Each structure stands twice: as structure tokens, then as C-alpha cells.
Amino acid sequence: MGATAQTLIKKIEDLPPQRLAEVEDFVDFLKLRDEQMRARAADQLFGMMDKLAAAEPQLTPEEIQEEIEAARTERREKSADRS
Length: 83
Fold this sequence. Notes:
By secondary structure, the protein is mainly alpha-helical. It has helices at 3-13, 17-55, 61-82. The chain has one domain (3-82).
């Protein structure tokens, strides 16, 4: 535990009992908010993945290799033109 956590624990220990419930509620709120933010981010990511999958048909390994070779050929031709 770092010094910051120890300092926070000491401050919490010094609080009156009625304030401890407020601290616990706030910590629960922060955890819930973080969980909701992660869930929203995951939903957005999966939504984007679904859109990408629907946008273009899946390529076969052979088609992927053809695309790679075409890009390499184009890059080589551009490089040769500059020379």
C-alpha cells in the first residue's frame, strides 16, 4: 500500500461513524460509475466491430495475400518513380 492509501485510511479511521456511511456510499458510487463507463466503452467497441464486419465481406487468406502483394507492388513502383 502506498503512502497515499495509508493517508486516506488514516483519515477514514478518524471520521465519526455517521460519516463512514457517506464515504462507503461515495466509494460504491465511484466503482459503479467506472463499471458503467467500461460497459459503455465495450458496447461501443462491439458496435464498431459489428459495423465493420457488416460493411465488407470477409476476405479469404488468398485474397488477403493478393491485397498485400498489390500494396507491395504499388509501393515499389512509387519508389522506383522517385528514383
